[in-house]
Write a structure and sequence with these properties.
Layout lengths: L1 H57 L3 H12 L11 E2 L5 E13 L7 H11 L5 H8 L7 E4 L4 H9 L5 E10 L7 H4 L11 H5 L1 H5 L4 E2 L4 H17 L4 E8 L5 E7 L7 H5 L6 H4 L15 H12 L6 E3 L4 E3 L2 E3 L8 E3 H6 L3 H11 L1 H10 L24 H8 L8 H12 L27 H17 L13 E10 L5 E14 L6 E8 L13 H4 L1 H15 L25 H7 L4
Parallel strand pairs: 1-5
Antiparallel strand pairs: 1-2, 2-3, 2-4, 6-7, 6-14, 8-11, 9-10, 12-13, 13-14
Helix pairs in contact: 1-2, 3-4, 9-20, 12-14, 12-15, 12-18, 14-16
């Protein structure tokens, strides 16, 4: 009996052990199956990515296109560092580096005035009152102070020993050239998205980590900026702008808008756009201005192209011209009949108005439209101003537009149209991003004949040799051009005699032009050296001469040692009557 009970207990125990073993064995089988399945899934996905989609990518399959589209949207490439921007010679203009940015925890800062003062000593672009207000916020533990600190700046902050100051590290946009070409390069937000300039217009390319090469030559950029800044300071002006343009390819070799700012501290300006709008405004592409007498280039070209008027055609400038309620005067009236070259070289408003009447409203409107002056310019940055054109376009508009009043455009658009006039008459498409191969080839429509272009080059040279642009002359480089002095609109009061926009647009070498150099100075004040004059001939023309001199040295341009008989202005001298010495001196002070 006892033996039977023992035997039954043993059998019961063995049964329980067997059941437990079977359960454990089942669980092992299940786990093994799951791991095997996961392994197979991973292996299959690896084969798909490496072989199937790799083949699809090589053959341009749909999967590759979908993947590429996702990548372009940024969904798969958040880790990709933003592409660099270079000038045409490989000089670095913009890059991305991991840098410290400074912020504060207001709650941890005890002596806030002392810290605010210390920070403004380290960062002169910070304002003490604003900084104090930021680090005194009571409802925030985070006060953003300054991005992109240099190692030296970070060291100085650490030396303060202030526990309420800290750093966060992230890829930041760095601009090694600082202010240079600030408005054309543009800037990004803290997340790396382009907000203006090339940073904005080339956002897709840069976000994928691809580099962008610009047409700018940083050496020419520096020379142009230096000379315009010098003129702004000399004549106590409000602002300035300028461009160097290749008249054949349309490449912008330099572009300046002053005042400008250090791109490495752009957040300090962008945080208050209204307050800093004058600094942020790109006067080269967004600023829309009435340029005055430089527009006579287009009026004169329209006369020669549409009416076949000979150069000895005379226009009666003996007395002011009255059109309705408008009276048109000359800056320094000749009070005589003027030939086409005389009207142009003396910058006669009366003569230009009579030229426009000869052309007619419809033809002049069409001519300016063909030059691209009536529509918004297509360019490689998106900040482009819209031209302001008279509407309706009547007789009075035709007259005022002839000498550059009543029509406003941008500096880059003005230079593009002038390049078309001097390059043989072929339409110019301006560009800021270097493109290769077929991308760089655009059909150039013929706007004016080669004959008209040649005549205009001679007239523009005459302005420099005998007219209002003498101070733009550089011996050996044969500059031609046109001065411009426009009274700025003073709102409902009309035009102000004291607020001028003085400019000069030059082309050289004028017998076979390669470059346009344009300089504009906004609201210059006459000086003792300029005898009180603040016209384009006194203010802007000398700047162009200095820029051309620098260009010759930088680019290694050989001087054209022409004998005087080869100057293209000489054949036009027969259409110019000799001036009394005193009158000739007055003419040089005109616009």
């Amino acid at each position: 009996m006892i033996l039977r009970n023992v035997r039954q207990n043993i059998i019961h125990i063995e049964g329980e052990q067997s059941s437990a073993l079977q359960l454990a064995y089942g669980r092992l089988i299940l786990l093994g199956s799951i791991f095997a399945l996961l392994y197979l899934v991973i292996a299959a996905r690896t084969i798909d990515l490496m072989i199937v989609q790799g083949y699809a990518s090589e053959s341009g399959g749909q999967d590759s296109e979908d993947l590429s589209r996702l990548a372009r949207s940024g969904d798969l490439l958040d880790h990709v560092r933003r592409g660099n921007i270079y000038d045409r010679n490989g000089v670095l203009l913009a890059t991305s580096l991991k840098t410290p940015s400074l912020y504060a925890d207001p709650e941890l800062i005890l002596n806030k005035p002392k810290v605010a003062k210390a920070l403004t000593q380290i960062f002169p672009d910070l304002k003490e009152e604003e900084t104090l207000a930021k680090i005194s916020m009571k409802k925030s533990r985070y006060a953003w102070l300054r991005p992109n600190l240099s190692p030296g700046q970070q060291e100085k902050v650490l030396e303060l020993g202030e526990p309420g100051l800290a750093f966060e590290y992230a890829d930041s946009r760095i601009y090694p050239q600082g202010n240079m070409a600030a408005h054309l390069l543009g800037y990004t937000d803290r997340e790396g998205r382009g907000l203006s300039g090339i940073e904005r217009s080339a956002q897709k390319t840069l976000a994928q980590g691809q580099d962008v090469v610009l047409t700018i030559d940083v050496r020419l950029q520096h020379a142009l900026r230096r000379e315009i800044q010098s003129a702004v300071e000399e004549f106590s002006a409000q602002a300035g702008a300028g461009v160097i343009l290749d008249v054949r390819s349309g490449e912008v070799l330099a572009g300046v808008s002053l005042p400008d700012y250090d791109l490495n501290a752009n957040s300090l300006y962008v945080s208050d756009v209204e307050k800093n709008k004058e600094i942020l405004l790109n006067r080269l592409t967004m600023g829309v201005y009435e340029f005055g007498s430089v527009f006579k280039i287009f009026t004169t070209a329209a006369l020669l192209e549409t009416t076949d008027a000979p150069l000895d055609t005379e226009f009666d400038a003996r007395k002011p011209l009255k059109i309705g309620r408008y009276t048109i005067n000359d800056y320094h009236a000749k009070k005589r009949l003027l030939t086409v070259p005389e009207v142009f070289m003396y910058s006669s408003n009366i003569g230009s108005a009579l030229m426009a009447q000869s052309v007619g409203a419809v033809k002049l409107h069409g001519f300016l439209s063909d030059l691209g002056l009536m529509d918004r310019l297509v360019f490689d940055v998106r900040e482009i101003g819209w031209p302001q054109v008279p509407d309706p376009w009547g007789e009075a508009s035709t007259i005022t537009v002839s000498y550059g009043h009543g029509i406003a455009t941008t500096a880059i658009q003005l230079c593009t149209a002038a390049a078309t006039i001097v390059n043989g008459g072929l339409q110019v498409h301006p560009k800021l991003i270097m493109k290769g191969g077929a991308e760089n080839i655009k059909p150039q429509a013929r706007i004016i004949s080669e004959e008209t272009s040649q005549k205009m080059r001679g007239l523009m040279r005459l302005v420099v040799t005998d007219g209002t642009g003498k101070k733009a002359d550089v011996p050996g480089y044969y500059i031609g051009g046109k001065t411009g002095t426009a009274e700025k609109s003073d709102g409902k009061k009309g035009y102000s005699h004291k607020k001028l926009l003085s400019s000069f647009i030059g082309a050289f070498p004028i017998d076979n032009p390669r470059y346009i150099v344009f300089v504009m100075v906004d609201e210059p004040q006459g000086t003792k050296k300029s005898f009180g004059y603040a016209t384009g001939g006194w203010v802007a023309a000398p700047v162009v001469a200095r820029v051309v001199t620098s260009m010759a040295a930088i680019l290694g341009l050989p001087s054209d040692q022409y004998v005087k008989e080869q100057d293209i202005s000489l054949p036009l001298q027969k259409y110019v009557k000799p001036e009394h010495p005193e009158k000739k001196k007055l003419a040089s002070n005109a616009n």
